[in-house]
Design goal:
- With 263 residues, the protein is of the alpha+beta class.
- The chain has 3 domains: 53 residues, Structural Genomics Hypothetical 15.5 Kd Protein In mrcA-pckA Intergenic Region, Chain A; 96 residues, Pseudouridine synthase I, catalytic domain, N-terminal subdomain (Alpha-Beta Plaits, 2-Layer Sandwich); 82 residues, Alpha-Beta Plaits, CATH 3.30.70.
- It contains 7 helices and 17 strands.
- The longest helix has 10 residues.
- It is globular and about 60 Å long.
């Protein structure tokens, strides 16, 4: 149920709380005319609603989810899988990987490119999703990047200071480690941490400094790290302590019931 009872709240916030989508995605759905409130199409996200209002997305009524029904899943996403609920081109999605065991509606937290692998969270906790994906909260994402060639100190300095891309200057990145790829072939592995989410940002940053990316894997999101023992395509529920640490990372208070549904 709504934490605020019948107090009005913005439509996009209500949709996020119900686990339908992040606030940003909810705003997009609204602006496209795909959301109805009490049978009327709404195109302005600022409209106020309460739990008594009937909200429909793409013709389907949505219901508030109880906090105890929130699901938090960590997936080791393989390459060649779409970070989406559905795909019009019929490619495999991350939901296809978990649907047989997790029937609840959950959604990817942000996106990993089709050809990027690694840590992906999925949940129906809209408030947490919004904060984890909003750049204002500065949640760091750490990647293991396989690049061509040996990277120079000057190139690393550029990455640390910010790289000018077509859509603007990137925020300073953290370079956590640099090592030669153990299979040779003039490849280097760089571990890098960023808190932005520009489209294909890591790939474009390295290409800009002269090192095309041969492989990209996300290994951490905030305090959550990918276990090396998890095989590609495997997934697990987050532990209660992990959920609490994620909430703390983005300034959300624990309600004492995180993971209470785990068996």
């Amino acid at each position: 149920m709504n934490e605020t009872g019948n107090q009005p709240e913005r439509l996009q916030k209500a949709m996020a709380r119900m686990g339908i989508a992040s606030r940003r995605h909810a705003e997009n759905l609204i602006s496209r005319g795909l959301v109805k409130v009490n049978g009327v199409i709404v195109t302005q996200p600022g409209i106020k609603v309460t739990d008594q209002d009937r909200i429909e997305v793409k013709g389907k009524k949505i219901e508030a989810e109880d906090k105890e029904d929130f699901i938090y899943v960590l997936l080791n996403k393989p390459e060649g899988v779409i970070c989406s609920v559905t795909d019009p081109r019929k490619r495999k999605t991350v939901i296809d990987l978990i649907r047989k065991d997790i029937p609840e509606r959950i959604y990817p937290v942000g996106r990993l490119d089709y050809d990027t692998s690694g840590l992906l969270l999925l949940t129906n906790d809209g408030d947490l999703t919004y904060r984890l994906t909003h750049p204002g909260y500065g949640v760091e994402k750490t990647y293991e990047v396989l690049i061509k060639g040996s990277i120079s100190s000057q190139s690393l300095k550029l990455l640390r200071e910010g790289v000018l891309l077509e859509d603007g200057l990137t925020a300073p990145a953290k370079i956590l480690s640099v090592r030669k790829h153990n299979k040779g072939n003039n490849l280097t592995v760089v571990e890098i941490s960023i808190h932005e989410g520009k489209n294909r940002q890591v790939r474009r940053m390295f290409e800009k400094v002269g090192h095309p990316v041969c492989g990209l894997k996300r290994i951490a999101l905030g305090p959550i790290t990918l276990d090396d023992r998890m095989k590609s395509g495997e997934y697990r529920y987050l532990k209660r302590s992990e959920i609490i640490s994620l909430k703390k990372e983005v300034g959300l208070k624990s309600d004492g019931r995180e993971g209470s549904w785990l068996k």
